[in-house]
Amino acid sequence: MKLLAFSASVRTGSYNTKLIRLIARKLTALEVEVDLAVFHEFDMPLYDGNLEAADGVPEGARKLAERIRAADGMVVSSPEFNHGVAAPLKNAVDWLSRIKPPPTVNKPYFIASAAPSMVGGWRGAIALMPSLTYLGMWVAPDTFCLAQANKAFTEDGGLVDAALDQMLDRMLGNFVRAVNALDFS
Amino acid sequence: MKLLAFSASVRTGSYNTKLIRLIARKLTALEVEVDLAVFHEFDMPLYDGNLEAADGVPEGARKLAERIRAADGMVVSSPEFNHGVAAPLKNAVDWLSRIKPPPTVNKPYFIASAAPSMVGGWRGAIALMPSLTYLGMWVAPDTFCLAQANKAFTEDGGLVDAALDQMLDRMLGNFVRAVNALDFS
Amino acid sequence: MKLLAFSASVRTGSYNTKLIRLIARKLTALEVEVDLAVFHEFDMPLYDGNLEAADGVPEGARKLAERIRAADGMVVSSPEFNHGVAAPLKNAVDWLSRIKPPPTVNKPYFIASAAPSMVGGWRGAIALMPSLTYLGMWVAPDTFCLAQANKAFTEDGGLVDAALDQMLDRMLGNFVRAVNALDFS
Amino acid sequence: MKLLAFSASVRTGSYNTKLIRLIARKLTALEVEVDLAVFHEFDMPLYDGNLEAADGVPEGARKLAERIRAADGMVVSSPEFNHGVAAPLKNAVDWLSRIKPPPTVNKPYFIASAAPSMVGGWRGAIALMPSLTYLGMWVAPDTFCLAQANKAFTEDGGLVDAALDQMLDRMLGNFVRAVNALDFS
Fold first, then answer.
1. pLDDT given at position A185
2. At a CB cut-off of 8 Å and minimum separation 6, what does A13 contact?
3. Residues of D within an 8 Å Cβ radius of A
4. How remote is the C-alpha of C36 from its chain's centroid?
5. Cα torsion for C30, C31, C37, C38, to the nearest 10°?
């Protein structure tokens, strides 16, 4: 099984990048092959219908689509912006939706988020769900929203809170089990 | 495979009841065993923490939980009320969440809706997604929202619009395939 | 100016009831007349279209409508249930919407919530917004979601955290100012 | 009174651009001064925390902020993308939120949308509400979502459907009245 994983933040020192690295480590320990991407690999302009008509879907979106096609599912950790989805992630979703056949159909997607706030990105996670299902994805019932992320990580990239760490382990275990089950190939 | 199906409307002549009957017929044709319930079988009071402390979870909710446990997944057709989830369905979700162990974990759920409006219940469908995932359910990527439901049905309970009918067939076929795949037992 | 205020929880010891009492105290100090209601005054059955056709809108909903009509705006503190709106509050919204002319048009509404979780009810607050606007209400830009409500209150019903207390003061001051401004009478 | 109005689509032939032009015409007839902007005036890159740290908020976002500051409220017509907010509009919101003091506080915002679908952009409208309120804006209770927009316009830019046209007139009248009322200056 192969899972695509990336952080939808490009900020240096991003908590979401820390979280996705930890998730990738945990998935590897579960004997999953992890394609840990950097969001910059998928750089693309803001969606623009005229641009699409002239030049087609940009290379960054096409690369992302290929990596999704090659994977059995995906895990993305994204900040929430202004109580909603982060624009960079929604923009990737919007370009992806222009690619035919869609690479996302029947792929399971695990939503993760990290934020310094107490809410931990839940509002962005919720805003994303209708778009992911519309792309044909199976949104995992478990969502991992890491609150107070500025205090959450140990020096070696683990979680300070053992209960949270076990919760993440359990969630990822469930996800891997479901991805195995949902193999439609 | 067995699927629980019901309309979350108790109104006589409900479009959602018409839709769930059609869905049940289509599922039966796919050789699925359908437990077609009537929402009144699960009558329960409005959620009230004091009532729960005194008397526990009401019988209607416990019956619903048993029927979910006995099924491999569920299809519910519900109206949207006031651009959000219909209170009767949310109330059932809220009581269900008080039952341990939860009967909903890892069960796939297909969201359907019918409404006389052009929007067809989409706003209620979207408002429901976070609650269903929180209960551990796999929300099907396909959602069937039937707009202008007052003009949508033939006399024998089919859909007037052949393209919509084929879309519903395709969606239910995909759902059945996924429920088979997601069998965790 | 008169504001209707209530907690949408009937549970004994409810954090939302604590919060609405504090809010009522603060509004009174701002020289607002507060109609502090108890949610049980508005007891009503689950929405049921047949019941409505037979008996009309139930008395509890009509009483709520009258109290809203007599007020210049309202503040409601409600728990979130299962990452969405609490069914009892949504049910009140759904019955209210059946009353003509609607008592809610152009009334400002301040969303408050209290919960033992870190998220503090934000997911329920967000799920409520489309329904409130559909009823014609002006949703205040400020939302007060009290996280870890089990540890948030002093013995005399104030907030332990002085910064939160000041934030609530500022939010209520802004709301009162806007209710004054939005007087359409 | 001055209102900022723009379409959040840059596509040639955009239905949202048609709709905002009609809205601007109607507002002008109500003796409102309309600042009808073109979204390209506010071109800005995708939000990127590193970019912000290096160069600050981009010029397009600062221009948008100034235009909002100079207005008493705003009307934006935006497509919905993939059952959620359109990335270009969310990106503008996300950059705007980085400007201090925020230009959006207490400004009323009228949500409009046009789409060829039957749903007319409602899902994008709903996804936007929490972000607008978080920026301090008063979201108008009325939302104008134009379904089947490909068939909705007359040759001179009016609406084919007289009932819809009257509804839009009534909504804009209510909005103008509220913007007058909400004048905090």
1. 59
2. none
3. 9-12, 14, 45-50, 81-88, 90-91, 93-94, 97, 123, 127-128, 130-131, 133-135
4. 11
5. 50
CA distance C116 to C124: 14
**Beta-strand pair B84-85/B80-81:** antiparallel
Amino acid letter, D81:
F
Bond preceding residue A101 cis, omega within 30 of 0:
yes
Residue C132 near residue D142 (C-beta atoms within 8 A): no
Give CA angle at B111 (B106, B113), nearest 5°.
Answer: 160
Neighbors of chain D with 3 or more C-beta pairs under 8 Å: A, B, C
| D83: nearest CA partner in chain A | A131
Ranges of beta strands (E only) in D58-162 are 73-77, 80-81, 84-85, 108-114, 138-139, 144-146
Using one digit for the tens of pLDDT, what is the confidence trace for B90-125?
A: 999 999 999 999 999 999 999 999 999 998 899 999
Contact D82 A134 (CB under 8 A): yes
Q: What are phi and psi of B13, to 5 degrees?
A: 85, 10
Tokens read off for B175: 């759902």
Closest by Cα among D49, C81, D106, D127 to A116: D49
What are the mean pLDDT values of chain B's consecutive 10-residue runs (185 residues total)?
97 97 98 98 98 98 98 98 98 98 96 94 97 98 97 98 98 96 74
The residue of chain B with its CA nearest to that of D146 is B118
CA distance C108 to D182: 12
Per residue in C32-58, pLDDT (tens digit) is 999 999 999 999 999 999 999 999 999
Would the CB atoms of B122 and D120 count as touching at under 8 Å?
A: no
Confidence of residue C185 (pLDDT cuts 50, 70, 90): low
Token pair recorded at residue C52? 């409505």
Q: Which residue in C46, C84, C97 is closest to B88 by CB distance? A: C46
CB A44 within 8 A of CB A115: no
Residue C163, token pair as written in the block: 């910064």
Structure tokens at B2: 């067995």
Q: How much is the pTM?
A: 0.97
- Pick the residue from chain A with its C-alpha nearest to B171: A136
In 3D, which of D160, D88, D99, D165 has the Cα closest to residue D124?
D88
pLDDT in tens, C63-83: 999 999 999 999 999 999 999
Residue of D74, D122, D139 to mutate, testing the C interface (most C Cβ within 10 Å of its Cβ)? D139
Distance CA A99, CA A57 (A): 7
User: The tokens of C145 are what?
Assistant: 């979601």
Contact B35, B74 (CB under 8 A): no
Query: What angle in degrees, to the nearest 10, is found between the helix axes of D87-96 and D122-134?
Result: 0
Query: How many helices (H) and strands (E) in chain B?
Result: 6, 8
What confidence tens digit (pLDDT) does each residue in A33-67 have?
Answer: 999 999 999 999 999 999 999 999 999 999 999 99
pLDDT tens for chain A, 185 residues long, are: 999 999 999 999 999 999 999 999 999 999 999 999 999 999 999 999 999 999 999 999 999 999 999 999 999 999 999 999 999 999 999 999 999 999 999 999 999 999 999 988 999 999 999 999 999 999 999 999 999 999 999 999 999 999 999 999 999 999 999 999 887 65
Nearest CA in chain B to A126: B130
At C137 the pLDDT is 97
Confidence check: pLDDT of C177 > 80: yes
What integer pLDDT is reported at residue C183 of this predicted model? 74
